[in-house]
Amino acid sequence: xxxxxRWLIFLLFLVLIPKTSFAHAYITNSNPGENSExxxxxxxxxxxxxEQIEEGFHSIKVYNSSGxxxxxxKTVIQKNDSxxxxxxxxxxxxxxxxxxxxNAVSADGHPVSGVIPFSIGKAGxxxxxxxxxQAALHPEAAIDRGILYTAxxxxxxxxxxxxxxxxxxxxxxxxxxxxxxLVISLCLTGLALVCQLPIQTKENAGGAWxxxxxxxxxxxxxxxxxxGHVWMIQISLFILLAVSMIPLLKKKAFRSFAxxxxxxxxxxxxxxxxxxxxxxxxxxxxxxxxxxxxLHLSAASVWTGGIAALVLLLSSEWRNTDKTIAWETVRxxxxxAFASVGVLLFSGVLNGxxxxxxxxxxxxxxxxKTLLLKIGLFVIMLALGAIHVWMTKLRRNKSISGTIxxxxxxxxxxxxxxxxxxxxxxPPPPAPLPFNGSDMIxxxxxxxxxxxxxxxxxxxxxxIVTDHNGSLVKDIQQFTVTxxxxxxxxxxxxxxxxxxxxxxxxxxxANMSITEKGNWKIKVHGLTNDFNEINQIFSTxx
Length: 542
What we know:
The protein has 542 residues and is an alpha+beta fold. The two termini are 30 Å apart. A hairpin with a 2-residue loop joins strand 14 (492-503) and strand 15. The protein folds into 3 domains: 25-134, Sandwich (Immunoglobulin-like); 139-178 and 247-421, no CATH class; 435-541, Macroglobulin (MG2) domain (Immunoglobulin-like). The strands form 3 sheets. It has an 8-stranded antiparallel β-sheet, with no helix packed on it. Strands 2, 4, 7, 8 and 9 form a 5-stranded mixed β-sheet that branches. Helix 2 (139-165) packs antiparallel against helix 3, helix 2 packs across helix 7 (286-313) and helix 2 (139-165) packs across helix 12. The longest helix is centred in the middle third of the chain and has 33 residues, at 172-204. It is built from 12 helices and 17 strands.
């Protein structure tokens, strides 16, 4: 039973993990390394990250023990590999303790920073511990995103309420309330987008409000970060959305598909643009990640926004003696809510396939604990929704406006929790373990493959074949290994190389075919002295 509960939590982890909050950029390698003692002065500092970093707001500043800068003043991101940034150092640096303070903007638009201490010669006083790189939680950013998500859900919920769920000629009071809700949602969306630029600039520039409105920093955010590019697209789409809403609001044609077509196109285009700003846009299967992110946000907006519309636009129907109209509206919405939950499950599990690295981090990090809170809220919200669906089938002559309000409040809490996630870095994946795989190949013989250390870069490959007694099989001429990465696009980065016989029954080779983290297939092909073929495929993830 305990194991089943753990798997249930793990499934919910896959479903509810925010799709734009994968791990922010972190260092995978640096030269010099942290706390290293160098015999001679290096020519430059080189830092390699796990993902691409943005052109804007990157720097490496190197200081000696007296606080004097010893770098040449320019930090460069390599053109052929934007995961690596370098900074040249002044010539002939003396023996001393140094620290390299670095800043960068990760591919999901969040700034990260850290310190790498090192020494030239012996470090007499000892070296400080490396400051871990992370993106701090900025409350103003989380609040701004929470307002944006709530406003977007209110807009689409109000639109779909009139187009699909409510079947009655609206009176003047309902039309008036609809106008107010749409205007409020547009105003909140515009406010959140306008505030987003200085908030992002402030984060990129190091967290000081004095930098948020400096023209040079604002320009760098707009022109040299993906978040700035997406912001310009989003604000343009918002203006078009607001303008396209004017005829609809004047005519109060809330049930007209003709009047809603253009605004809805701009609305969903804005959601799609937002999907380009997160980590979903930089994973290997970029198109899949962006599509799932878009579907996830759309489904969440329809579900939460629909509940908001039921609360704010259906109150008079619940007060009537005959509540048929209210119950029929809830019944129609329930179909859409069920479909939205299905989309959330599908997009969550599929994106989770790309990003889940460690189950234990769910209970031992701020990210994981906040995620557990969101899971709890989601389960309560789902339970209330199930109760509402059940009650629509009974057709009781009672009002459920109170429980619908509770579901809406929980839905808003889920949206704001999601907004917090976008600022909290998920933990980096654990260090990969050496791969050890074996499989039967017939005649009681077993082929074993060992890969050490099983991570991007140089790896040692070893293949051995043993008989049913565990003794090495020696009548083998050769082995070749084909390494390729798997994905929706088929085979990628395919490479084939020969293994050398180091001793009877043992074949080995050092190779750099595993070039990045991900899912890899290892195809082992062998030939015996009798010219019989051996073929086996292994899978490894690093």
